[in-house]
Design brief:
Blueprint: E1 4-7, H1 8-29, E2 34-35, E3 60-61, E4 65-72, E5 77-84, H2 95-118, E6 126-127, E7 130-131, H3 132-153, H4 161-167, E8 180-181, H5 183-209, H6 212-219, E9 224-227
Parallel strand pairs: 1-9
Antiparallel strand pairs: 2-3, 2-8, 3-4, 4-5, 6-7
Helix pairs in contact: 1-2, 1-5, 2-3, 3-5
């Protein structure tokens, strides 16, 4: 018989697992890893709100995507265009970024799998006599290691030609040049920290769902058990 067990700690772990997976996925897909050198706007470009010239635009560069402005000569205006600069894996700008993409993708796949499984832990708490929380916690720890490897390798690719075109001639491995880090990089770091927190917190979720109070309510014949 399926017993639906909901505790404060297990629900918090489930929510954190889902948030971490989405945060890492969004960061990986974003082009806002590097913010490039400011490019001055043309004299014909004006800010609709102030009537003055527009602020200089800073293009952004991701692991495999980018955002930049393209000019429309006919209308003397510019639009922001975002999309992948690499049509396939081999066209990613740096071998280090290719390795980063592999490690991040592996970590994100594990996190998404754990997030999906975590939804069912309210009804299924063990698989083959193994606690599903402990198994998921171990997988989250492994995913965190993949994410760390990817984030360590990423700055080593700042010396590639693509990064230099955005960050200036002084950009090199682990040196940003004229670029700055975008929100996607910080989101990936924050998601990695939360991944390890989730891995540790999974043990608390397992303790909460196997406590004596839960066992007492199961023995009383309750199928829905909610505990703080």
């Amino acid at each position: 018989m399926c017993h639906v067990i909901v505790t404060c700690r297990s629900m918090l772990w489930t929510l954190l697992s889902i948030v971490v997976a989405f945060a890492e996925l969004i960061a990986f897909m974003s082009a806002d890893w590097l913010i490039g050198r400011a490019k001055p706007s043309g004299p014909e470009e004006t800010d609709n709100r102030t009537g003055g010239p527009q602020e200089p635009y800073r293009p952004t560069l991701g692991i495999y995507g980018r955002c930049t402005r393209i000019s429309h000569m006919q209308f003397s205006r510019r639009d922001t265009l975002c999309g992948p600069y690499a049509e396939n894996f081999g066209e990613i700008a740096s071998g280090f970024w290719q390795a980063t993409a592999i490690f991040l993708a592996m970590g994100i796949m594990i996190l998404c799998t754990v997030a999906f499984v975590s939804v069912f832990t309210m009804c299924v708490q063990s698989i083959m006599k193994k606690s599903i929380f402990n198994v998921c916690g171990l997988l989250q720890g492994i995913a965190g290691l993949f994410l760390i490897l990817g984030l360590i390798l990423y700055p080593a690719g700042w010396g590639c030609q693509k990064a230099i075109s955005y960050c200036g001639p002084y950009a090199s491995a682990y040196k940003l040049g004229d670029c700055s880090l975008g929100w996607a990089f910080y989101t990936a770091i924050g998601g990695t920290v939360l991944t390890f927190i989730c891995a540790v917190f999974s043990a608390q979720a397992e303790i909460a769902t196997s406590s004596d109070k839960v066992q007492e309510e199961i023995e009383e014949g309750k199928n829905l058990i909610c505990l703080l």
